[in-house]
Design brief:
By secondary structure, this protein is an alpha/beta fold. The chain has nine helices and eight strands. It has helices at about 15-25, 50-65, 85-95, 110-115, 130-145, 165-175, 215-230, 260-265, 265-275; strands spanning about 40-45, 65-70, 100-105, 120-125, 155-160, 180-185, 200, 235. The strands form two sheets. It has a four-stranded parallel beta sheet with strand order 2-1-3-4, with helices on both faces. A four-stranded parallel beta sheet has the order 6-5-7-8, sandwiched between helices. Helix 1 packs across helix 9 (about 265-275). The radius of gyration is 19 Å and the shape is globular. Bound molecules: phosphoric acid mono(formamide)ester.
């Protein structure tokens, strides 16, 4: 049966730990799996904007020895003429690509499309649904920062968390690893209950999603600033892009690990590709 990565629920706890360990070894120059032939092709189909997810998957495939084809704008594909995502996936998977990463504005659309695929599909973010590889990058950065000691920790998720697929998937993976989560939603600021957090995960307002369009940015950014101040020892996390909720002054603070989260993109996604292409087991 074709393996996909559509949700964090597709991976068990031991798979996740092994994935982190392989990414660490790979990042440190160890040979943990072979290369793929140049005629193995990754297709990236991105129907929403992306910098990190698309480019890190493409870099990962190129580093693995394979090749990449890409559609980064819905308007330049036949979807703009009314072709369904299911038909698009059928065509690309049966004729062009050995593995496909899809980002789509509708929650559930990538999982539905996977039913029509002859090759592995990775969910590169579906609306306010899931973003499993972002969660793995976030977890990897946290795992490194805490020297591999995750069990019994607490992470606070701050902001527009209900519409953030990154926060949703991160909460799922933390739960699997025995990390407690607490939520501080925008306009529900109760600092006293969450002072013991080991990390605070700030999300941006998801202005492109229904229900988040009217968020007041100044007030959101002010609440984020206060939240960070309330947990002076916690690591500061953010899946990026940031839009004002984390100031540049925090960039050199040793608590800030958001650029490490982004840096995890290539090693984590290389292992994900290697696993789904069958050159390494988890
Ligand atoms: N965190 C994240 O998904 O970034 P991109 O939207 O740039 O891919």
């Amino acid at each position: 049966m074709t393996k996909h990565l559509l949700s964090i629920s597709d991976l068990g706890q031991s798979n996740i730990i092994r994935l982190l360990q392989l990414a660490y070894q790979y990042q440190n120059g160890e040979t943990v799996f072979g290369m793929v032939p140049r005629n193995k092709i990754l297709a990236t189909l991105f129907f929403e904007p992306s910098t990190r997810t698309r480019l890190s998957f493409e870099a990962a495939m190129l580093k693995l020895g394979g090749s990449v084809i890409s559609a980064s704008d819905l308007a330049t594909t036949s979807c703009a003429k009314g072709e369904t995502l299911q038909d698009t996936i059928r065509i690309v998977s049966e004729s062009y690509a050995d593995i496909i990463v899809v980002r789509h504005p509708e929650a559930g659309a990538v999982a539905d499309a996977a039913k029509y695929s002859a090759v592995p599909i990775v969910n590169g973010g579906d609306g306010n649904g899931e973003h499993p590889t972002q969660a793995l990058c976030d977890l990897y950065a946290l795992w490194n920062a805490l020297d591999g000691e995750l069990s019994g920790r607490t992470v606070t998720l701050f902001g527009d968390v209900d519409n953030s697929r990154a926060a949703r998937s991160f909460a799922s993976v933390l739960f699997k690893l025995g990390v407690s989560t607490q939520y501080i939603r925008y306009n529900d600021f109760q600092p006293r209950s969450w002072r013991d957090a080991d990390a605070i995960y700030i999300t941006r307002p998801q202005l492109e999603r229904k229900g988040s369009e009217d968020i007041d940015l100044d007030s959101y950014n002010e609440q984020a600033r206060k939240a960070i101040q309330e947990v002076p020892d916690a690591l500061i996390m953010h899946p990026l892009p940031r839009t004002g909720e984390i100031s540049k002054e925090l960039d050199d603070n040793p608590r800030s690990i958001y650029f490490q989260q982004a840096k995890a993109g290539v090693p984590i996604r290389t292992v994900v590709l290697a696993y789904l292409l069958g050159i390494v087991q988890l």
